[in-house]
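Residues pack. One example:


***
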Amino acid sequence: MTVLDIAEVAQRAGVPASTLRFYEEKGLITSSGRRGLRRQYDPGVLERLALIALGRAAGFSLDEIGLMFTPEGEPRIDRRMLTDKAEELDRRIRELGALRDSLRHAAACPAPRHLECPTFRGLLDAAASGGVTAPGKRVPPR
C-alpha cells in the first residue's frame, strides 16, 4: 500500500504541514502511521483535503465540515446544509452588491461632502444598525 509523507501531502494539497496537524487534531483527517517522527497518510487524504478546502471556500466552519464525514471518514454531505449555505451566500452577494453600488455612487457623487449625500448617509445608517458587516462576520437577525 502506498503512503504519502506529510511533506508530500502538504505540497500536493497546497497547505502547510501545520494545517495537516491541526486538521488531524480536529479529527478531520487521520494519519496512517509514522515513519520516524514524520506522519504518513493514505493517498485518499488528498480527496478529503480537497473536500475540506471546498467547504472552507464556501464558508463552512471546520466544525460544520467535520459533520460532513462519517466516523470512518467517508463523505456524508447533508444536502439541506448545502442549500442553507447557498442561500446564505445569495444573501451575502446581494449585500455586497448593494455595498459596492453605494461605494461607487459615493466615489462619483456630486455632493460637496459625503455626509451630504443621501446614498452615503444610507450606507452609514446601515453600518450603524449592523446591516453592513465585514466578510465572514455573521450578524444575528433582528
Remarks:
- Residues 79-108 form the longest helix (30 residues).
- The first strand starts at residue 4 and ends at 5.
- The two ends are 55 Å apart (CA to CA).
